[in-house]
Design goal:
The structure is a homodimer of 332-residue chains. Chain A has 332 residues and is α/β, with parallel strands linked by helices. In chain A, the strands form two sheets. Chain A has a six-stranded mixed β-sheet with strand order 3-2-1-4-11-10, sandwiched between helices. Chain A has a five-stranded mixed β-sheet with strand order 5-6-9-7-8, with helices on both faces. At the A-B interface, helix 8 and helix 9 of A face helix 8 and helix 9 of B.
């Protein structure tokens, strides 16, 4: 049997915590024997939830934590003061080597700050990027960086390109992943100061398969596997992706309800439409990994249900088995 | 009768030039009596096209130009060398006061450079932004700036906010338009260096209705009327808007063709779907105005057909009649 992957799961973080989080843990251990989930949070509440399920009991453990970090709290203060919170307890398990990965649907700010402050960066990594998978016409691409640290330098972007390539190759199984830098035109001389400075560095980087600029309109078509950009732009891309998709789908659905004819048609296309939209729903792909840390941190959506939590836990296995941390250490 | 609006139209610019451009001019003058279109380009070709239509002949004029600027040419050199091109001739008509506005579906780079170099900025305007209308669930918003000049300063963004407000209020008829700055979170302390510096300036600006940060996901929902950002981010938003929309629609259509059931449904929803998608097609709203110049410049899509050209010409009327140039001069 392959090695165990130990995942510290913040049972109290997220809109549907602890119910959906605990269910996600149960579903994950029922799916694979090589996962151990350590739930952190109010032990009484967690035990209450666990009662409803049957699962291999040696694969789920509870570490009690009395506090919860709310999404509205300033992250730095929250991390510092709430030592007995489910989030800090879980992160410390990774820090102390008692867990390989951390998963939470809680406060994004606290996860990003905690990742840097509590777990810490791999030596040599200048910045730990948040890198969600985004759906495309060809499958998924990795959007790196969407984190909280804006105003990046070119050396950061080069590291993001390398780290992103390693992740796509070894976790997602994309051979020789294509890397592109987000730009406002295809030509090398186009771009803002940061992109112009970064472009030649990426071009001369032998460890990655750099294909040049990628215009925003080419991202959904799946032109590249690793989409490199600084966090402000990455955040805009990620949020607009969700926004345009959601608005368009709502309008399409509303449009179909305007006549009897189209209402009947809507009933007939519904199953096919649902299938298509599922492929474009980012929660299908689990949470966003924060890379370059001494352990994997996965930030799941605040609205995560059991399914996304389960997917997020399962993606930790590949990360551990492929020893991505070590590959990043050597690769950057 | 109200005053004439004189539009210099680059008959040779665009994928479907001169055919669709000339047709657009004819449709525009057939729609309104207070428009005069001056077509620039190869006179023989233009006359050939015009032969097919009936229209009030005193409303269309031709100014011969023997050259054409191709989209692949470096803009600055092209503008300088091709003095007898349809684009330079048309811009010079605006510069010399013989036309109020310029419309072209030709080289974006040449239009942006020509606007600055040939027509020139209104005194006091630091940068002339390109500001397309983008479709939202509530109608349209103005995305300002999407031009070629990246790495903006905060004073530029404040001017964009003022100019955008004037355009939305007086050309689009939105009373007291809501202005937002593109940001990665709702709080004032969020953002990159540029946004943090600009935020308080916008907040203390009395001429506009500033509502704070707008996250990218809120743009398609129509949260604000004027979306302020620097050109790199604006370009990403504009292109991603088109990209996500196009990919999603393609996938939805493909999804509907997967079974007999959904194929029948697709036939029934088609008319309603078409109507909805039309509302989300940016070419419905004409070209993108480049604002802050001594005359209006409208950059239509390269793929413009007669319809977009006509819409672009008609939007010049409102601009002229409302004397937007003078309002910008006083407002900034």
């Amino acid at each position: 049997m392959s090695e165990m992957t130990r995942v510290a799961l913040d049972a109290m973080g997220g809109d549907y915590a602890p119910k959906e989080i605990v269910k996600g843990a149960v579903d994950a251990v029922n799916a694979r024997k090589d996962i151990q989930v350590i739930l952190t949070g109010r032990e009484d509440l967690i035990r209450q939830e666990l009662k409803a399920y049957s699962y291999p009991e040696d694969q789920i453990e509870i570490v009690h934590a009395s506090e919860v970090i709310e999404t509205a709290e300033p992250p730095v203060t929250a991390i510092r003061r709430k030592k007995d919170s489910s989030l800090v307890r879980a992160m410390n398990l990774v820090k102390n080597g008692e867990a390989d990965a951390f998963v939470s649907a809680g406060s994004s700010g606290a996860i990003l700050v905690g990742g840097q402050v509590l777990i810490g960066r791999i030596k040599g990594v200048e910045r730990a990027p948040l890198a969600p998978l985004i759906p495309t016409a060809k499958g998924v691409s990795l959007l790196i960086d969407c984190g909280a640290n804006v105003d990046a330098r070119s050396s950061h972007l080069v590291q993001f390109a390398k780290i992103g390539s390693l992740y796509m190759e070894h976790v997602m199984g994309v051979k020789n992943p294509k890397v592109g830098i987000v730009n406002i035109g295809a030509e090398e001389e186009k771009g803002n100061a940061l992109v112009k400075e970064t472009f030649p560095l990426l071009k001369s980087c032998e460890d990655i398969h750099f294909v040049g600029s990628v215009e925003a309109r080419e991202i959904p078509a799946g032109k590249v596997d690793v989409v490199v950009c600084e966090a402000f732009v990455g955040n805009v891309i990620l949020k607009l992706y969700e926004g345009v998709g959601a608005t368009l789908i709502k309008e399409v659905k509303r449009g179909m309800m305007t006549s009897l004819r189209s209402k009947i048609g809507a009933l007939l296309v519904k199953p096919a439409l649902k299938e298509t939209l599922k492929a474009f729903d980012s929660s299908e792909y689990g949470g966003a990994p924060m890379l370059g840390l001494n352990g994997l941190v996965v930030k799941a959506h605040g609205s995560s249900t059991a399914k996304e939590i389960k997917t997020s836990i399962l993606q930790c296995v590949q990360f551990k088995q492929q020893d991505i941390g070590e590959k990043i250490r050597k690769g950057i």
